[in-house]
Amino acid sequence: MASPSLIPAHFIVFFVVSRLMSIIGNLRPSKNSLPCEIDSLGVHAKLRYDLDAIGLASTDYGNIVHEIPSAVLYPTSIDDIIELIKFSNECPLPFNVAARGHGHSVRGQAMAHDGVVVNMLSLKKHYKNGNGIRVSTSGNYADVGGEQLWIDVLNATLEHGLAPLSWTDYLYLTVGGTLSNAGFSGQTFLYGPQISNVLELDVITGKADFMTCSKDQNSELFYAVLGGLGLFGIITRARIVLAKAPKRVKWVRMIYSDFSIFTRDQEHLISTKGLEYLEGSLLMDYTPANNWRSSFFSPSNESQIISLLKKHGILYCLDMVKYYDDETANSVDKDVQMLQEGLNFIPGFTFMRDETYVDFLNRVRRGEITLKSKGLWDVPNPWLNLLVPNVSKKEDYGSKCTDQRSRDQT
Ligand SMILES: Cc1cc2nc3c(=O)[nH]c(=O)nc-3n(C[C@H](O)[C@H](O)[C@H](O)COP(=O)(O)OP(=O)(O)OC[C@H]3O[C@@H](n4cnc5c(N)ncnc54)[C@H](O)[C@@H]3O)c2cc1C
């Protein structure tokens, strides 16, 4: 008679292994919230559930918000992303899909709670021809993958003596990431933000359609995606306007103690021809004159500024930049002098640096390296950027809006 307690050995092994597998499965953050059919997709092998991948995708520069995705896609082609989004649409309970560029958002914008984060940088390694940055033969534009970092766009276009016109202060951000926002820096007053310097996009829409769009083709999609916070599709290619790259810059910083005088000069300068960059910033008496984003002052200048700060508590800096190259090297100082004529910064408080164009554009990187070396990068980084409207021009603005509205109504 067979004993009822006898269980075949291979069954026990099978039971233990399958139990272990299910425990390990539960450790994989929340894979269970994805439909199991995901395992039959072609992209299945490119989905990662390990803690390294999940940890990265649930962290950003802000280090304030942490949303745990179920998986992270490391695509090797655009088709991988299309397949994933298509699958998400076909599921009875669609899951979120978010593109992650370089993760320099501050409040979890590139995260996908219980969904799938697409690690766009993974595409960079899988170009069959070239590096994902192609300069047109006319030299008027470059076609650039959405996953490319702006620093790489700069280096690739400089090989042709060309460069984009509009920048961010910091270049280790992806093209898709900044075009989903706006992309601001000191060139914006002249050329508009980066989103105003795009001729065409390739986009994977929320319905998994791959579409090319521009102001003349699928224009609704084009304008929705530019500045669309990643909500209207994933940018896989952007056609960026290029122009001749300058070689060097004269970078001038002027100091003010009166906010009205500071903004008046700022407005005067943006209406003047001949400068390529203008940005304002504050110095407070509890922060060093040279901060991580910009160490501009020499030690002797710094002590001058510190005593001025002690007196006023707050100072306003106006940074203006004039580009130049071999042909204009002899006249650039005179041009800067002329630009400064009639400005009302504190007498004597104007400082100039002469830098290569690349060093100037890449200035925040120096600060980043210093912060990282001090272990001060991977900490919570609250960040607030404000565009300050000109209150004294409020009436003008109001009447312009009314004019526009009445035109729209007729
Ligand atoms: C140190 C630092 C300096 C900065 N300086 C500036 C500055 O000078 N000017 C400025 O304008 N901004 C600046 N920013 C803000 C920055 O431009 C935005 O946070 C930008 O979104 C970051 O790009 P990213 O590649 O890291 O994008 P991520 O943080 O990875 O993503 C940002 C958003 O874009 C979406 N996204 C990412 N890739 C794509 C894609 N291919 N297609 C569609 N959507 C996508 C994401 O889903 C998310 O919504 C700075 C940020 C930091 C941390």
From TrEMBL:
Signal peptide extent: 1-22
Membrane-spanning intervals of the chain: 221-242
Family of this protein: Belongs to the oxygen-dependent FAD-linked oxidoreductase family.
Keyword terms of this UniProt record: FAD, Flavoprotein, Membrane, Oxidoreductase, Signal, Transmembrane, Transmembrane helix
KW Zinc-finger (keyword) present: no
Pfam family, one: FAD_binding_4
Descriptive protein name: cytokinin dehydrogenase
Listed GO MF terms: cytokinin dehydrogenase activity
Organism: Abeliophyllum distichum
Organism placement in taxonomy: Eukaryota, Viridiplantae, Streptophyta, Embryophyta, Tracheophyta
Cofactor(s) required for function per UniProt: FAD
Catalysed reaction, written as an equation: N(6)-dimethylallyladenine + A + H2O = 3-methyl-2-butenal + adenine + AH2
Enzyme Commission identifier(s): 1.5.99.12
Ranges in coiled-coil conformation: none
FAD-binding PCMH-type domain boundaries: 65-245
Keyword Acetylation applies: no
